[in-house]
Amino acid sequence: MLLQLATEVRTRAYAPYSRFQVGAAIRTASGATHVGCNVENVAYPEGTCAEAGAIAAMVAAGETRIAEILVIADSPAPVPPCGGCRQKIAEFAAPEVKVTLCTTDGQQKVMTVAELLPGVFTAAHMARTEPDAEPGAKADR
Ligand code: THU
After folding, report:
1. Residue to substitute in 11, 14, 17, 18 for testing ligand 1 pocket (most ligand atoms within 8 angstroms of CB)
2. Residue 127 domain-assigned?
3. Whole-angstrom Cα distance, residue 81 to residue 87?
4. For each of the chain's 141 residues, which pLDDT tens digit applies?
5. In terms of Cα–Cα distance, which of 85, 78, 72, 77 is closest to 116?
6. Residue 111 belongs to what domain range?
7. What is the position in ligand 1's atom list of the atom closest to the CA of 49?
8. pTM higher than 0.70, yes or no?
9. Is position 132 within any domain?
10. Catalytic residue selected from 40, 46, 51, 68
11. Which long-range contacts (CB under 8 A, 24 or more apart) does 59-66 make?
12. How distant is the alpha carbon of residue 65 from its chain centre?
């Protein structure tokens, strides 16, 4: 299911600069699925990853909990999410959530979110700070 969805959306990836097309598919706790592909830009850092696109689609559809995620690319080995996407996935997925890394020639590697991002930064690490009562109030300090 996720494999088929990610394979399909990958064909629509906009990757004229790297020519590396990536597809991602998410299943949420409700059973709904959301997909994304990488979208590059002539200003290279402005490109977005397939995982980020799938997460954006999930949030836009009103869901925030990833039950499972799969990523696919035409790669010699199962393609792992980049560092930024590991953090983005961890925002919406429990540590034990399955992440399936795939290649278009049929290789698969299954990992967990915790394996991909041990020692993840969470909101709990900000427990000793208090948000500004008036945002901008300390701007000139
Ligand atoms: N890319 C993804 O979309 N997801 C990954 O997990 C790895 C990398 C994209 C970003 C860029 O468009 C291209 O692949 C090459 O880095």
Report:
1. 18
2. no
3. 10
4. 999 999 999 999 999 999 999 999 999 999 999 999 999 999 999 999 999 999 999 999 999 999 999 999 999 999 999 999 999 999 999 999 999 999 999 999 999 999 999 999 998 999 998 877 777 665 554
5. 85
6. 2-116
7. 3
8. yes
9. no
10. 51
11. 59/92, 61/32, 61/34, 63/28, 63/29, 63/30, 63/32, 63/34, 64/92, 65/28, 65/29, 65/92, 65/93, 66/26, 66/27, 66/28, 66/92, 66/93, 66/97
12. 12
H-helix or E-strand containing 25? strand 22-28
Q: Report if residue 70 sits inside a domain.
A: yes
Q: Using a 6 Å cutoff on CB, does residue 40 contact ligand 1?
A: yes
SS3 of the chain: helix, strand, coil, percent, to 5: 30, 30, 45
Residue 88 Cβ contacting ligand 1 at under 6 Å? no
Cβ of 23 less than 6 Å from ligand 1: no
Q: Say which CATH number the domain at 105 has.
A: 3.40.140.10
Q: Which atom of ligand 1 is nearest to the CA of 53?
A: 3
Whether 63 is a known active-site residue: answer no
Give me the number of domains the chain comprises: 1
The distance in angstroms from the start CA to the end CA of the chain is 53
